[in-house]
Amino acid sequence: MNNLAKLTAPVLAAWAKILAALPEARLVLRTHALGEAAARDRFAQRLGAAGLPMERVALEPGLPHAGLMAAYGGIDIALDPFPYTGGLTVCEALWMGVPVLAVAGDSFCGRHAASHLGNIGLEAWVAATPEAYIAQAIARAGDLPALAALRAGLRGRVATSPLTDAPRFGRNLAAALRQAWEGAAP
């Protein structure tokens, strides 16, 4: 449910390896750009050239927000792209009970997902390398009882985390602004 521009060659290669190891798995990609036939066809060719089994890849158009959120009900694990990770997309997946597997990058745009996952206690869902990401995806997809237990409590984890604690955020922001203001005073 991310921007197609984030789906780099290394991401597609990783997804191809994950799907090769999990013959029952399927990959669902949903974004507004896939609502245009020409764009969808070009992207399908790119995915096929990257080795993804297109008979198990669903290319879906975008939806109004309520429909998009409901579509998470058909997803077991969200595979976050890298090195440009999701921000809002990660938060929405987690809120809808879908755990997100990510790779920690070395830049701001590569650490959004790691930050969000850390804030809800899912640091173990952040891989250090694409190879670890692939291995984790395969292992986590193979442990359905653990996945079901995590999914059942995921919204509660998000609801009690710093991700949704607006008063805490406000206090911390006010303190940081005061500190910056006092440090800048002559």
UniProtKB/TrEMBL annotation:
This is O-GlcNAc transferase C-terminal domain-containing protein. It comes from Belnapia mucosa. Pathway: Protein modification; protein glycosylation. Keywords: Glycosyltransferase, Repeat, TPR repeat, Transferase. Residues 2-171 form the O-GlcNAc transferase C-terminal domain. The lineage of its organism: Bacteria, Pseudomonadati, Pseudomonadota, Alphaproteobacteria, Acetobacterales. InterPro entries: Glycosyltr_41/O-GlcNAc_trsf, OGT/SEC/SPY_C. Coiled coil: none annotated. Gene3D superfamilies: Glycogen Phosphorylase B.
